[in-house]
């Protein structure tokens, strides 16, 4: 990558970060392009070079969620699926980009968007890890990876909403662990269930 490309990538990431902070604080309707540009310390021209509209910027923030999680993980199969959700629960408390992405994805119907990309991306990623678990013999016979992935995406969405209302997400890691303690015996073999580590500490990766 040459110097010009590197500068463009840095600028785009700078805009995304600023936009995420503003979306996180104010929601989509309360976030103005001018406030995003001011937060980024850039010009309107720079923003519109990378994103054609506020909606395009919101979509980019929504759909950047896996990049905030997947590079931090080193496990595989069923353990990786558990770890994705635990790191996600932890990062939602400290990462404004991830937090804004989740907020926008959940609230998007209020501002006329119907973009399921972020949910479908997570489902595809989780299905892949569940397929690995199936090949390794860790899933119970008859358990369908895509069905489990679909359920986990929906369950995590609901758990984080409830946790946000109840405790400001302070208990989200514990609630996520509760989900897995209930779910694992139904989808995993007894041997795999005993081996998989389900603990809030699994989410504390940098």
From TrEMBL:
In terms of Gene3D superfamilies, this protein maps to: Tetracycline Repressor, domain 2 (1.10.357.10)
- DNA-binding interval(s): 32-51
Pfam families to which the protein is assigned, alphabetical: TetR_C_45, TetR_N
Q: Which PROSITE patterns match?
A: HTH_TETR_1, HTH_TETR_2
Arranged from A to Z, the UniProt key words for this protein are:
DNA-binding, Transcription, Transcription regulation
Domain HTH tetR-type intervals? 9-69
Q: Does the keyword Transcription regulation apply?
A: yes
Which InterPro entries does UniProt cross-reference here?
ArpA-like, CprB_TetR_C, DNA-bd_HTH_TetR-type_CS, Homeodomain-like_sf, HTH-type_TetR-like_transc_reg, HTH_TetR, Tet_transcr_reg_TetR-rel_C_sf
SUPFAM superfamilies noted in UniProt: Homeodomain-like (SSF46689), Tetracyclin repressor-like, C-terminal domain (SSF48498)
Protein name according to UniProt: ScbR family autoregulator-binding transcription factor
Task: Tell me what organism the protein belongs to.
Answer: Streptomyces lutosisoli
């Amino acid at each position: 990558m040459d110097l010009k490309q590197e500068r463009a990538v840095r600028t785009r990431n700078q805009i995304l970060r600023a936009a995420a902070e503003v979306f996180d604080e104010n929601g989509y309707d309360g976030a103005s392009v001018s406030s995003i540009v001011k937060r980024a310390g850039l010009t309107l021209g720079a923003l519109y070079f990378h994103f054609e509209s506020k909606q395009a910027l919101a979509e980019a923030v929504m759909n950047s969620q896996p990049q905030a999680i997947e590079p931090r993980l080193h496990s595989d199969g069923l353990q990786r699926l558990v770890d994705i959700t635990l790191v996600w629960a932890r990062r939602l408390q400290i990462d404004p980009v991830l937090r804004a992405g989740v907020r926008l994805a959940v609230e998007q119907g209020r501002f006329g968007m119907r973009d399921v990309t972020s949910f479908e991306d997570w489902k595809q990623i989780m299905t892949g890890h569940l397929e690995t678990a199936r090949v390794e013999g860790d899933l119970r016979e008859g358990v369908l990876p895509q069905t489990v992935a679909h359920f986990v995406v929906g369950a995590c969405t609901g758990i984080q909403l409830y946790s946000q209302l109840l405790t400001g997400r302070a208990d989200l890691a514990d609630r996520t662990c509760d989900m897995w303690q209930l779910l694992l015996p139904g989808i995993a073999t007894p041997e795999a269930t005993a081996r998989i580590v389900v603990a809030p500490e699994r989410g504390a990766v940098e």
